[in-house]
Amino acid sequence: MSNITFPSFTNHRFNFCESKIYGGSPEYINSFTSLILSYYGFKGLILNYNTNILIKMIYTSLFICGFSSFGFHWTGNIGWAFFDQFSMILMAFSTLIAMTDEIMYSFNIKSIKYASNIMNLFTLLITLYIVLIITFNSLGHDIIFNFMFALFLLSTVIFIPITRYITHIKLITQFIIIYNYGIVALLSLIIAMIMWITTESLCDTISWIKYFPGHAIWHFGTGFGGYLLGLYILFLNENRYPNIAYLNIENIFEPFIVKKSKY
Predict the structure, then answer these.
(1) Could you tell me which residues are beta bridge partners of residue 77?
(2) Nearest alpha carbon to residue 234 among 13, 61, 50, 45
(3) What is residue 115's three-state secondary structure?
(4) With contact defined as beta carbons under 8 Å apart, do 88 and 149 qualify?
(5) CB-CB contact of 145 with 93 (8 Å)
(6) How many Cβ atoms are within 10 Å of 116's Cβ, its own excluded?
(7) Confidence of residue 141 (pLDDT cuts 50, 70, 90)
(8) What pTM, to 2 d.p., does this model score?
(9) Total number of domains constituting the chain
(10) Cβ within 8 Å of residue 214, ≥6 positions away
(11) What is the rounded (10 degree) CA torsion for 251, 253, 256, 260?
Protein backbone atom coordinates (compact mmCIF):
# COMPACT_ATOMS: atom_id res chain seq x y z
CA MET A 1 0.00 0.00 0.00
CA SER A 2 1.54 3.29 -1.13
CA ASN A 3 1.68 6.32 1.13
CA ILE A 4 -0.45 9.32 0.26
CA THR A 5 1.70 12.34 -0.48
CA PHE A 6 0.64 15.95 -0.76
CA PRO A 7 2.34 18.40 -3.12
CA SER A 8 4.48 21.10 -1.57
CA PHE A 9 3.53 24.76 -1.80
CA THR A 10 6.14 25.42 -4.48
CA ASN A 11 5.23 22.55 -6.80
CA HIS A 12 4.47 23.89 -10.26
CA ARG A 13 0.78 23.77 -11.20
CA PHE A 14 0.43 24.98 -14.77
CA ASN A 15 0.55 28.19 -16.79
CA PHE A 16 -2.15 30.09 -18.59
CA CYS A 17 -2.13 31.17 -22.22
CA GLU A 18 -0.12 34.34 -21.62
CA SER A 19 2.90 32.27 -20.49
CA LYS A 20 3.41 31.11 -24.08
CA ILE A 21 4.62 34.61 -24.89
CA TYR A 22 7.51 34.32 -22.43
CA GLY A 23 7.96 30.55 -22.30
CA GLY A 24 6.80 30.26 -18.70
CA SER A 25 6.17 32.25 -15.52
CA PRO A 26 5.72 35.00 -14.59
CA GLU A 27 2.64 36.08 -16.51
CA TYR A 28 2.94 39.85 -16.23
CA ILE A 29 -0.48 41.02 -17.47
CA ASN A 30 -2.38 38.29 -15.63
CA SER A 31 -0.41 38.93 -12.43
CA PHE A 32 -0.97 42.66 -12.14
CA THR A 33 -4.58 42.63 -13.34
CA SER A 34 -5.30 40.10 -10.56
CA LEU A 35 -5.00 42.98 -8.11
CA ILE A 36 -8.21 44.43 -9.58
CA LEU A 37 -10.02 41.71 -7.61
CA SER A 38 -8.42 42.89 -4.38
CA TYR A 39 -9.29 46.50 -5.20
CA TYR A 40 -13.00 45.75 -5.56
CA GLY A 41 -12.96 43.51 -2.50
CA PHE A 42 -11.34 46.29 -0.47
CA LYS A 43 -13.75 48.86 -1.88
CA GLY A 44 -16.71 46.68 -0.93
CA LEU A 45 -15.43 46.18 2.60
CA ILE A 46 -14.70 49.79 3.58
CA LEU A 47 -16.72 52.09 1.33
CA ASN A 48 -20.18 50.56 1.65
CA TYR A 49 -22.55 49.35 4.33
CA ASN A 50 -21.61 45.86 5.47
CA THR A 51 -24.10 44.55 8.03
CA ASN A 52 -24.50 41.10 6.51
CA ILE A 53 -21.90 38.38 7.21
CA LEU A 54 -22.42 36.85 3.77
CA ILE A 55 -21.72 40.16 2.04
CA LYS A 56 -18.57 40.52 4.11
CA MET A 57 -17.53 37.02 3.02
CA ILE A 58 -18.06 37.91 -0.65
CA TYR A 59 -15.86 40.99 -0.46
CA THR A 60 -13.26 39.37 1.77
CA SER A 61 -12.99 36.49 -0.71
CA LEU A 62 -12.49 38.98 -3.56
CA PHE A 63 -9.80 40.77 -1.57
CA ILE A 64 -7.89 37.56 -0.81
CA CYS A 65 -8.38 36.21 -4.32
CA GLY A 66 -6.60 39.15 -5.93
CA PHE A 67 -3.36 38.63 -4.03
CA SER A 68 -3.44 34.84 -4.27
CA SER A 69 -4.14 35.06 -8.00
CA PHE A 70 -1.18 37.42 -8.36
CA GLY A 71 1.06 34.84 -6.69
CA PHE A 72 -0.34 32.06 -8.86
CA HIS A 73 0.19 33.87 -12.15
CA TRP A 74 3.62 35.12 -11.09
CA THR A 75 4.99 31.76 -9.94
CA GLY A 76 2.67 29.05 -11.22
CA ASN A 77 2.96 27.36 -7.81
CA ILE A 78 0.29 24.98 -6.54
CA GLY A 79 0.19 26.72 -3.15
CA TRP A 80 -1.01 29.98 -4.64
CA ALA A 81 -3.47 28.03 -6.79
CA PHE A 82 -4.97 26.61 -3.61
CA PHE A 83 -5.66 30.05 -2.13
CA ASP A 84 -6.89 31.32 -5.49
CA GLN A 85 -9.46 28.57 -5.92
CA PHE A 86 -10.37 28.52 -2.23
CA SER A 87 -11.29 32.20 -2.23
CA MET A 88 -13.17 32.00 -5.54
CA ILE A 89 -15.30 29.08 -4.41
CA LEU A 90 -15.92 30.71 -1.03
CA MET A 91 -17.14 33.82 -2.84
CA ALA A 92 -19.42 31.71 -5.03
CA PHE A 93 -20.89 29.80 -2.10
CA SER A 94 -21.43 32.97 -0.05
CA THR A 95 -23.27 34.54 -2.97
CA LEU A 96 -25.40 31.43 -3.50
CA ILE A 97 -26.42 31.36 0.16
CA ALA A 98 -27.19 35.10 0.19
CA MET A 99 -29.33 34.77 -2.95
CA THR A 100 -31.16 31.76 -1.51
CA ASP A 101 -31.84 33.67 1.72
CA GLU A 102 -33.26 36.61 -0.23
CA ILE A 103 -35.56 34.39 -2.29
CA MET A 104 -36.81 32.59 0.84
CA TYR A 105 -37.47 35.92 2.53
CA SER A 106 -39.41 37.15 -0.50
CA PHE A 107 -41.65 34.08 -0.21
CA ASN A 108 -42.18 34.83 3.50
CA ILE A 109 -40.51 31.70 4.89
CA LYS A 110 -40.46 32.62 8.57
CA SER A 111 -37.84 30.09 9.64
CA ILE A 112 -35.31 32.14 7.69
CA LYS A 113 -36.68 35.52 8.77
CA TYR A 114 -36.58 34.84 12.51
CA ALA A 115 -33.51 32.63 12.73
CA SER A 116 -31.22 34.29 10.22
CA ASN A 117 -28.27 34.52 12.62
CA ILE A 118 -28.38 30.81 13.38
CA MET A 119 -28.82 30.00 9.71
CA ASN A 120 -25.87 32.20 8.75
CA LEU A 121 -23.61 30.47 11.28
CA PHE A 122 -24.82 27.04 10.20
CA THR A 123 -24.34 27.73 6.50
CA LEU A 124 -20.95 29.32 7.17
CA LEU A 125 -19.63 26.16 8.85
CA ILE A 126 -21.01 23.93 6.11
CA THR A 127 -19.65 26.21 3.43
CA LEU A 128 -16.14 26.20 4.86
CA TYR A 129 -16.23 22.41 5.08
CA ILE A 130 -17.43 22.01 1.49
CA VAL A 131 -14.98 24.59 0.20
CA LEU A 132 -12.03 22.75 1.73
CA ILE A 133 -13.05 19.46 0.13
CA ILE A 134 -13.78 20.95 -3.28
CA THR A 135 -10.61 23.05 -3.31
CA PHE A 136 -8.35 20.09 -2.55
CA ASN A 137 -10.01 18.13 -5.33
CA SER A 138 -9.92 21.09 -7.66
CA LEU A 139 -6.15 21.25 -7.44
CA GLY A 140 -6.03 17.95 -9.29
CA HIS A 141 -9.26 18.14 -11.27
CA ASP A 142 -10.10 21.55 -12.70
CA ILE A 143 -13.44 20.35 -14.01
CA ILE A 144 -14.76 20.43 -10.43
CA PHE A 145 -13.78 24.07 -9.96
CA ASN A 146 -15.16 24.99 -13.39
CA PHE A 147 -18.44 23.22 -12.59
CA MET A 148 -18.85 25.02 -9.27
CA PHE A 149 -18.20 28.44 -10.78
CA ALA A 150 -20.55 27.67 -13.68
CA LEU A 151 -23.21 26.74 -11.12
CA PHE A 152 -22.66 30.07 -9.36
CA LEU A 153 -22.97 31.95 -12.65
CA LEU A 154 -26.12 30.05 -13.66
CA SER A 155 -27.71 30.81 -10.28
CA THR A 156 -26.92 34.49 -10.73
CA VAL A 157 -28.47 34.45 -14.21
CA ILE A 158 -31.67 33.11 -12.64
CA PHE A 159 -31.62 35.17 -9.44
CA ILE A 160 -31.29 38.74 -10.72
CA PRO A 161 -34.14 38.65 -13.28
CA ILE A 162 -36.62 36.99 -10.91
CA THR A 163 -35.96 39.53 -8.15
CA ARG A 164 -37.54 42.05 -10.50
CA TYR A 165 -40.85 40.30 -9.83
CA ILE A 166 -40.64 38.67 -6.39
CA THR A 167 -38.83 41.31 -4.35
CA HIS A 168 -40.48 42.68 -1.22
CA ILE A 169 -39.43 46.17 -2.32
CA LYS A 170 -42.01 47.98 -4.38
CA LEU A 171 -40.97 48.81 -7.91
CA ILE A 172 -39.99 52.35 -7.09
CA THR A 173 -37.64 54.33 -9.27
CA GLN A 174 -34.69 53.69 -6.99
CA PHE A 175 -35.14 49.92 -7.06
CA ILE A 176 -35.38 49.91 -10.86
CA ILE A 177 -32.11 51.84 -11.05
CA ILE A 178 -30.41 49.39 -8.72
CA TYR A 179 -31.92 46.45 -10.61
CA ASN A 180 -30.21 47.78 -13.73
CA TYR A 181 -26.90 47.69 -11.87
CA GLY A 182 -27.65 44.08 -11.02
CA ILE A 183 -28.01 43.40 -14.74
CA VAL A 184 -24.67 45.13 -15.34
CA ALA A 185 -23.11 42.84 -12.72
CA LEU A 186 -24.58 39.81 -14.45
CA LEU A 187 -23.34 40.84 -17.89
CA SER A 188 -19.90 41.61 -16.48
CA LEU A 189 -19.60 38.12 -14.97
CA ILE A 190 -20.82 36.42 -18.15
CA ILE A 191 -18.44 38.34 -20.42
CA ALA A 192 -15.57 37.62 -18.03
CA MET A 193 -16.16 33.87 -18.11
CA ILE A 194 -16.55 33.82 -21.89
CA MET A 195 -13.22 35.64 -22.25
CA TRP A 196 -11.46 33.16 -19.98
CA ILE A 197 -12.88 30.04 -21.62
CA THR A 198 -12.34 31.33 -25.16
CA THR A 199 -8.75 32.44 -24.62
CA GLU A 200 -7.57 29.32 -22.84
CA SER A 201 -9.38 26.84 -25.11
CA LEU A 202 -8.08 28.42 -28.33
CA CYS A 203 -4.55 29.11 -27.13
CA ASP A 204 -3.02 26.04 -28.76
CA THR A 205 -5.07 26.41 -31.93
CA ILE A 206 -4.74 30.10 -32.81
CA SER A 207 -1.20 31.45 -32.51
CA TRP A 208 -2.09 35.10 -31.91
CA ILE A 209 -4.63 34.40 -29.15
CA LYS A 210 -1.87 34.43 -26.52
CA TYR A 211 -1.54 38.17 -27.07
CA PHE A 212 -5.24 38.76 -26.38
CA PRO A 213 -5.77 39.66 -22.69
CA GLY A 214 -8.75 37.38 -22.20
CA HIS A 215 -7.74 36.32 -18.71
CA ALA A 216 -7.10 39.95 -17.74
CA ILE A 217 -10.65 40.76 -18.85
CA TRP A 218 -11.77 37.88 -16.63
CA HIS A 219 -10.10 39.56 -13.65
CA PHE A 220 -11.76 42.91 -14.30
CA GLY A 221 -15.18 41.43 -15.10
CA THR A 222 -15.21 39.19 -12.04
CA GLY A 223 -14.04 41.95 -9.71
CA PHE A 224 -16.42 44.60 -11.03
CA GLY A 225 -19.33 42.19 -11.43
CA GLY A 226 -18.80 40.67 -7.99
CA TYR A 227 -18.67 44.13 -6.42
CA LEU A 228 -21.95 45.25 -8.00
CA LEU A 229 -23.62 41.91 -7.27
CA GLY A 230 -22.71 42.25 -3.60
CA LEU A 231 -24.20 45.76 -3.52
CA TYR A 232 -27.37 44.54 -5.19
CA ILE A 233 -27.88 41.75 -2.67
CA LEU A 234 -26.98 44.13 0.16
CA PHE A 235 -29.60 46.64 -0.96
CA LEU A 236 -32.29 43.95 -1.03
CA ASN A 237 -31.26 42.68 2.40
CA GLU A 238 -31.08 46.04 4.16
CA ASN A 239 -34.45 47.15 2.82
CA ARG A 240 -36.22 44.34 4.63
CA TYR A 241 -36.49 46.66 7.61
CA PRO A 242 -38.44 49.90 6.98
CA ASN A 243 -36.98 51.74 9.98
CA ILE A 244 -33.40 51.43 8.70
CA ALA A 245 -34.10 51.20 5.00
CA TYR A 246 -31.16 52.16 2.83
CA LEU A 247 -33.24 53.80 0.12
CA ASN A 248 -30.67 56.51 -0.41
CA ILE A 249 -28.92 54.74 -3.25
CA GLU A 250 -26.35 57.51 -3.62
CA ASN A 251 -24.82 56.25 -0.36
CA ILE A 252 -24.65 52.65 -1.54
CA PHE A 253 -23.73 52.89 -5.20
CA GLU A 254 -21.46 55.91 -5.03
CA PRO A 255 -19.70 56.73 -7.35
CA PHE A 256 -21.70 54.75 -9.92
CA ILE A 257 -24.84 56.85 -9.55
CA VAL A 258 -24.60 60.24 -11.21
CA LYS A 259 -26.25 62.92 -9.11
CA LYS A 260 -28.48 65.35 -10.93
CA SER A 261 -27.73 69.03 -10.76
CA LYS A 262 -30.04 71.24 -8.68
CA TYR A 263 -30.12 73.83 -11.45
Answers:
(1) 12
(2) 50
(3) coil
(4) yes
(5) no
(6) 17
(7) low
(8) 0.80
(9) 1
(10) 17, 195, 196, 198, 199, 200
(11) -40
**Residue 101: partners with Cβ closer than 8 Å, 6 or more residues away:** 54, 112, 116, 119, 237
Q: Is 187 exposed, middle or buried (0-12, 13-18, 19+ CB in 10 A)?
A: middle
Looking at residue 234, its pLDDT comes to 84
Helices 53-75 and 214-238, packing angle to 10 deg: 170
Supply the range of the domain harboring residue 176: 19-253
Cβ atoms of 62 and 245 within 8 Å: the answer is no
If one compares 235 and 129, the residue with the highest pLDDT of the two is 235
Within-domain flag for 24 = yes
Nearest to 230 by CA among 97, 134, 106: 97
CATH value at residue 199: 1.20.1070
